[in-house]
């Protein structure tokens, strides 16, 4: 069972090494910062997958009432927030080298991404408001489903209707227009690698949370 984890570690190691060593075309404005494509965009893909996974577990919990599914939903959402924060950090770093600032309130996608993460931070705050595990799980599941449905609007639909510096928005070149084949050779494996890493993290965090839950209720 552990072999796939070694595979993920090796896969990401190769992605990082070749990501920095491979020759890439000097795209206007981006220059060498284009290598951040291997990190920034996969973070968002991975975040989406993690949040969707959490939503599926939340729906399954509401259907079955099994507390184990609530733990899995919380775990997946927590991992999603971590990758979302990494997406913001790598995006801020990219903005510094391409736009000349770490953050700008004139960029809707950047700001709406922060709003999206705050919605999920509220999910964890909501969980602390209940002492009863079943009531906490039920309210959290409903909120989590709502939170995930806001993501497409906040990170895709609304930003595309507003002026933006991001690729594909308001006349800017699309993602496909500014990514050379050399970049895609690393980009797609990076997406797979980081999704694999998120599954690994979910497994670790889930086992910890489940053990902690069992210990707390054994003591009670």
What does this structure look like?
The structure is a single chain. The chain is mostly helical and 220 residues long. The chain has one domain (30-219). Helix content is 77%, strand content 0%. α1 runs antiparallel to α7 (181-219), α2 (37-64) packs parallel to α7 and α3 (67-98) runs antiparallel to α4 (108-127). 28% of the residues are buried. The mean pLDDT is 87.
Number of helical stretches of at least 4 residues: 7
* Structure class: mainly alpha
Binned, the helix content reads over 70%
What radius of gyration results from the CA coordinates? 19 Å
Inertia-based shape: globular
Number of domains: 1
Distance between the termini: 33 Å
**What is the residue-mean pLDDT, rounded to a whole number?**
87
Beta fraction of the residues? Answer: under 5%
| Contiguous uncertain segments of 5+ residues | none
């Amino acid at each position: 069972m552990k072999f796939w984890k070694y595979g993920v570690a090796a896969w990401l190691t190769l992605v990082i090494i070749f990501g920095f060593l491979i020759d890439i075309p000097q795209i206007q404005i981006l220059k060498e910062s284009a290598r951040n494509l291997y990190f920034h965009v996969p973070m968002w893909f991975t975040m989406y997958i993690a949040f969707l996974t959490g939503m599926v577990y939340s729906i399954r919990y509401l259907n079955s009432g099994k507390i184990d599914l609530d733990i899995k939903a919380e775990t997946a959402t927590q991992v999603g927030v971590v990758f979302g924060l990494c997406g913001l950090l790598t995006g801020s770093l990219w903005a510094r080298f391409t736009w000349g600032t770490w953050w700008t309130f004139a960029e809707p996608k950047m700001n709406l991404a922060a709003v999206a993460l705050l919605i999920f931070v509220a999910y964890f705050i909501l969980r602390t408001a209940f002492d009863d595990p079943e009531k906490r799980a039920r309210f959290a599941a409903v909120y989590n489903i709502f939170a995930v449905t806001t993501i497409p609007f906040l990170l895709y639909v609304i930003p595309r209707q507003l002026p933006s510096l991001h690729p594909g928005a308001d006349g800017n070149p699309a993602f496909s227009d500014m990514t050379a084949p050399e970049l895609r050779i690393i980009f797609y494996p990076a997406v797979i690698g980081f999704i694999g890493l998120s599954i690994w993290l979910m497994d670790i965090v889930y086992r910890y949370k489940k053990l902690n839950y069992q210990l707390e209720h054994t003591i009670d």
